[in-house]
Automatic annotation (TrEMBL):
<dbReference type="GO" id="GO:0008270">
    <property type="term" value="F:zinc ion binding"/>
</dbReference>
<dbReference type="InterPro" id="IPR013149">
    <property type="entry name" value="ADH-like_C"/>
</dbReference>
<dbReference type="InterPro" id="IPR002328">
    <property type="entry name" value="ADH_Zn_CS"/>
</dbReference>
<dbReference type="Pfam" id="PF00107">
    <property type="entry name" value="ADH_zinc_N"/>
</dbReference>
<dbReference type="InterPro" id="IPR050129">
    <property type="entry name" value="Zn_alcohol_dh"/>
</dbReference>
<keyword id="KW-0862">Zinc</keyword>
<dbReference type="Pfam" id="PF08240">
    <property type="entry name" value="ADH_N"/>
</dbReference>
<dbReference type="InterPro" id="IPR013154">
    <property type="entry name" value="ADH-like_N"/>
</dbReference>
<dbReference type="InterPro" id="IPR011032">
    <property type="entry name" value="GroES-like_sf"/>
</dbReference>
<keyword id="KW-0479">Metal-binding</keyword>
<dbReference type="InterPro" id="IPR020843">
    <property type="entry name" value="ER"/>
</dbReference>
<dbReference type="InterPro" id="IPR036291">
    <property type="entry name" value="NAD(P)-bd_dom_sf"/>
</dbReference>
<dbReference type="GO" id="GO:0016491">
    <property type="term" value="F:oxidoreductase activity"/>
</dbReference>
<comment type="similarity">
    <text>Belongs to the zinc-containing alcohol dehydrogenase family.</text>
</comment>
<keyword id="KW-0560">Oxidoreductase</keyword>
<protein>
    <submittedName>
        <fullName>D-arabitol-phosphate dehydrogenase</fullName>
        <ecNumber>1.1.1.301</ecNumber>
    </submittedName>
</protein>
<feature type="domain" description="Enoyl reductase (ER)">
    <location>
        <begin position="12"/>
        <end position="340"/>
    </location>
</feature>
Length: 347
């Protein structure tokens, strides 16, 4: 089968290859991949920043059709339209696994990062990670269930966002726009913050129904927040940009007892947090890593009820053969989200 493979460490060293078709083991499911989203993690692997087990088929944002099931699989059948969590295996014994917080298991193996992923004609996953797609959710939309689940985890499981809260999301990339939509679905008033180079993405935020999409290089964010909150400040801020400046702004505009949720990763992880703000305002600083099993049904429910639109984030659809174009366009910010496919164009 065709697959996009990282075959050596360091920058580059990725190509489209013909590799043996995989077969499911006990408790596993084989999916014919219909659509797979390009993620920032894929770009980090491409650039050689994120080290992985090699050789490795990239891709972890997947939707497709079940074509084969292994021994012991009971709740999934051939022909099911599905998406899959990224977890293929965990230690199953640590405190986090016991609580089904697989995103925190130190021995977790994820598709596209530690084991072969979805930039291929077929991918193997475990039956516990499978989620059946609602009938009204197409393959392209479903391929973004994973990043949507990350937003669900941050908004609905880690923070206390509630109806009529003022929420500020920094970074109008895919994660930021999905997180903003989840906050809107909960009933919050939402501001998405970008900079001049994010013009296209900020325009998309407005089309998605976000209340305010602002360029912080042109608009006084703090004044807007204070006007909207009667001088109190935002209830919750989400940092999805991976930016020191966004961290500083996100803390500055919070109300007393507000919540700051860090989702973005910085190139230099030794970020500075203003402890005066944290102590004197009794702020909560929360980390939100990826997603967990409970995030996925909520994400699919939001998609099915059309409270979140992932399809509008997909600005380019390309065949596997054009993976390099997809990676370069994603890296330079030309597109919001790119989906790859093998074979026929997904509907």
């Amino acid at each position: 089968m065709k697959a996009i493979v990282k075959y050596e460490q360091n920058a580059g060293n990725i190509k489209l290859m013909d590799i043996p078709e995989p077969f499911p083991g006990r408790g596993q499911v084989k999916i014919k991949v219909m659509a797979a989203g390009v993620c920032g993690t894929d770009l980090l692997i491409w650039k050689g920043i994120h080290k992985t087990n090699l050789p490795l088929v990239l891709g972890h944002e997947v939707s497709g059709i079940v074509v084969e099931v292994g021994e012991g699989v009971e709740n999934v059948k051939v022909g099911d339209r599905v998406t899959t969590e990224t977890t293929l295996a965990t230690c199953e014994t640590c405190d986090y696994c016991v609580n089904k917080e697989y995103n925190l298991c130190s021995n977790r193996k994820g598709i596209g990062t530690q084991v072969n992923g979805g930039f291929a004609e077929y991918v193997i996953t475990r039956q516990e990670s499978i989620h059946i797609l609602p009938e009204n959710v197409d393959f392209i939309s479903a391929a973004l269930t994973e990043p949507l689940a990350c937003g669900v985890h941050a908004v609905m499981e880690k923070s206390r966002v509630k109806e009529n809260d003022l929420v500020v999301v920094f970074g109008p990339g895919a994660i930021g726009l999905l997180t903003a939509q989840v906050a809107k679905a909960v009933g919050a008033k939402v501001i998405v913050v970008g900079i001049s180079k994010d013009k296209r993405r900020l325009e998309l935020a407005e089309k998605l129904g976000i209340d305010y999409a602002i360029n912080s290089q042109e608009t006084d964010l703090k004044s807007l927040v204070m006007d909207l909150s009667k001088g109190y400040g935002a209830d919750v801020t989400f940092e999805c940009a991976g930016s020191q400046k966004a961290i500083s702004q996100g803390l500055e505009i919070l109300r007393k007892k507000g919540q700051f949720v860090q989702m973005g990763l910085l190139e230099d992880p030794s970020a500075v947090f203003n402890t005066d703000y944290i102590v004197h305002r009794e702020l909560e600083i929360i980390g939100s890593r990826s997603q967990k099993p409970s995030s996925w049904p909520k994400a699919l429910k939001l998609l099915s009820e059309k409270k979140v639109n992932t399809r509008k984030l997909v600005t380019k659809i390309l065949p596997l053969e054009e993976w390099e174009n997809a990676f370069e366009s994603s890296l330079n910010g030309e597109e919001v989200k790119i989906v790859l496919y093998a074979g026929q164009i997904p509907e």
